[in-house]
Amino acid sequence: MDITSEKVGEALLVRVSGELDLDTARDFRARVDADLDRFGSHHLILDFAGVGFVDSSGLGAILGRYKRVAEKGGQVAICRPRDHVRRLLDLAGVMRIVRVYGSREQALIGVGQKEAAAGGDFR
Amino acid sequence: MNWMRLELPALPENVALVRVAVGSLAAQLDFTLADIEEIRVATSEAFSNAVLHAYPQSSPEQPGAVTVEARIDGGALEISVADRGVGIPDVDLARTAAYTTREDRMGLGFVFMETFMDEIAVRTAPGSGTRVVMRKRPAGGGLAKAGSEVAEARGTGGATGASGGTGVAGASGCGGER
Predict the structure, then answer these.
(1) Distances in whole angstroms, Cα of residue A65 to Cα of each of A26, A75, A77, B173
(2) Per-residue confidence (pLDDT) for residue B104, from 0 to 100
(3) Which of residues 45 through 104 in chain A touch B, CB cutoff 8 A?
(4) What residues of chain A, 3 to 22, have a C-beta less than 8 Å from chain B?
(5) Is A17 exposed, middle or buried (0-12, 13-18, 19+ CB in 10 A)?
(6) Which candidate from B16, B162, B166 shows the least CB-CB separation from A19?
(7) pTM for this structure?
(8) Range of the domain at B71
(9) Residue B41 resides in a domain
(10) Residue B68: pLDDT above 50?
């Protein structure tokens, strides 16, 4: 699993590549939590374009991050999930509380970072 | 007829190995790519359950063993995941959506196995271990069908909105890990 993060406005944009399961969820959790602290970000956007597999362990890790961010009043969004990952998010009910978007720009706007999205100042 | 048998330690790093092997065997049947993904998820859930629950007393240095078998027979796929661990005290309870004994889990493992496979049987006894057997036949059931049924029941017309799902994530007391 490969994870890269950057601060965009008040959001942490995290690009995830690989498979999110019982094994990799530990790294995902530790890395995202550390970067949320490091950047002091209010919102979290998970770019899942590179994620080929998610199971219930991965969903648990996503929901755990949601709880952490939501407790401080922030929002979590997921963008660009592949179709089968999106269907899993829907089936598990994750999409009731975490918005899913087709692009990073839409996700940034979704969490209230319209200016950052318009600036396009992210990789 | 084709089959495979893997015996491997109950370690998280083996989850990917198991689902890749089972998914590759499944690809020899006329499953859709969506079917294969569902089979990979169901396999991952069954093996993850064994890793998480079968051997609570074992250490990473001396993990218990899990045997994974997959078989193509009569045009269908059968997957068996078996351990010789502590067993499941109450199978019906364990199979309840959102039920989990661990705070960092969602209780979705059996839900996904039941949703993505045509049949599932669980045989378990205290101290003797657990065997989960799942079957799936090409062109039957699956996630797309389950999703559309959920959408129909809700009258939302598809699995694209923010309102589908089992509701597990939104239920109180089971919203993922800390």
Answers:
(1) 12, 10, 11, 15
(2) 64
(3) 53, 55-57, 59-68, 83-84, 86-97, 99-100
(4) 19, 21-22
(5) middle
(6) B16
(7) 0.85
(8) 2-154
(9) yes
(10) yes
Identify the pLDDT of residue B154. 44
Task: Give the closest of A23, A53, A90 to B164, CB-based.
Answer: A90
Asked whether the beta carbons of B115 and B86 are under 8 A apart, the reply is no
- The tokens for B53 are 């629950």
Whether residue B143 has pLDDT greater than 80: no
What pLDDT score does B176 carry? 46
pLDDT number for residue A37: 95
Residue B175 in domain = no
Question: Taking the domain A2-119, which CATH number applies?
Answer: 3.30.750.24
Cβ of B143 and A21 within 8 Å?
A: no
Those residues of chain A that have pLDDT short of 70 are 121, 123
Q: Is some CB atom of chain B closer than 8 A to the CB atom of A109?
A: no
Q: What's the structural domain count of chain B?
A: 1
pLDDT score, position A68: 95
Q: Which of B74, B66, B48 is nearest to B8 (CA)?
A: B66
CATH number (domain holding residue B78): 3.30.565.10
Contacts of B163 in chain A (CB under 8 A): 95-96
List all residues 6 or more positions away from A29 whose beta carbon is below 8 Å from its beta carbon.
A61, A64, A65, B177
- Cα separation, B96 vs A103, whole angstroms: 36
**Facing residue for A63 by CB, picked from B33, B45, B177:** B177
Q: A17 has which bridge partners? A: A2, A50
The values of phi and psi at residue A81, to 5°, are -70, 150
ipTM summary value:
0.92
Residue B164 lies in a domain: no
Phi, psi (degrees; rounded to nearest 5) at B90: -140, 100
- Residue range B34-61, pLDDT digits in tens: 999 999 999 999 999 999 999 999 888 8
